[in-house]
């Protein structure tokens, strides 16, 4: 009887943790797919990661040190990816933080970016994902880019 109760309790706990893990894994899968599409220069795959009205932005600093935010459309981003040689883009990320509340997820990923094997810059990506029709999609992506203070 004790063994039966132990198995029943273990199964219950595995189901609870499995469901929580599945949501986080699903979010990670979308983000990882984005970077796979970049590495393989696959703009069609890249577009599957994003919501229809997604917003893509980069925080930039000009020579005078003035900060601004640059907008980029998904079609511009996809075109720039498809124009690259397969394997030339390698953005190596670390999942630092993931938070999920129902259909909203936030993901924070510090990264190092390599072009043709050469370190180019580092920064942080901040993703907002929305679960649309049962699938996680990137609604908003903003990133920083810098050449100093990187952990290469």
Structural notes for this entry:
The protein has 152 residues and is of the alpha+beta class. 34% of the residues lie in helices and 43% in strands. The protein is built from three helices and seven strands, in the order ααββαβββββ. The longest helix is centred in the first third of the chain and has 38 residues, at 2-39. The model is unreliable at 3-20 (pLDDT under 50).
Number of strands: 7
Oligomerization: single chain
Helicity level, as a percent range? 25-40%
Gyration radius from CA atoms, angstroms: 19 Å
In whole angstroms, the N-to-C terminal distance is: 55 Å
User: Given the helix and strand composition, which structural class is it?
Assistant: alpha+beta
Largest sheet: 7 strands, mixed
SSE order, as H and E? HHEEHEEEEE
Overall average residue pLDDT: 89
Estimate the global geometry from the Cα principal axes: globular
Strand content: 35-45%
So how many helices? 3
What are the segments in which pLDDT stays under 50 over at least 5 consecutive residues? 3-20
């Amino acid at each position: 009887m004790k063994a039966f109760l132990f198995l029943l309790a273990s199964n219950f706990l595995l189901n609870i943790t499995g469901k929580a893990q599945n949501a986080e894994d699903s979010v990670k899968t979308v983000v990882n797919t984005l970077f796979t599409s970049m590495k393989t220069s696959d703009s069609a795959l890249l577009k599957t990661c994003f919501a229809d009205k997604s917003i893509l932005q980069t925080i930039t600093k000009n020579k005078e040190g003035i900060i601004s935010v640059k907008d980029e459309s998904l079609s511009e981003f996809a075109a720039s990816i498809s124009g690259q040689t397969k394997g030339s883009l390698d953005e190596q990320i670390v999942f630092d933080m993931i938070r999920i509340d129902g259909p909203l997820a936030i993901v924070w990923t510090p990264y190092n970016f390599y072009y043709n094997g050469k370190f180019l810059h580092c920064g942080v990506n901040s993703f907002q994902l929305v679960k649309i029709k049962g699938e996680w999609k990137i609604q908003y992506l903003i990133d920083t880019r810098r050449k100093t203070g990187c952990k290469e």
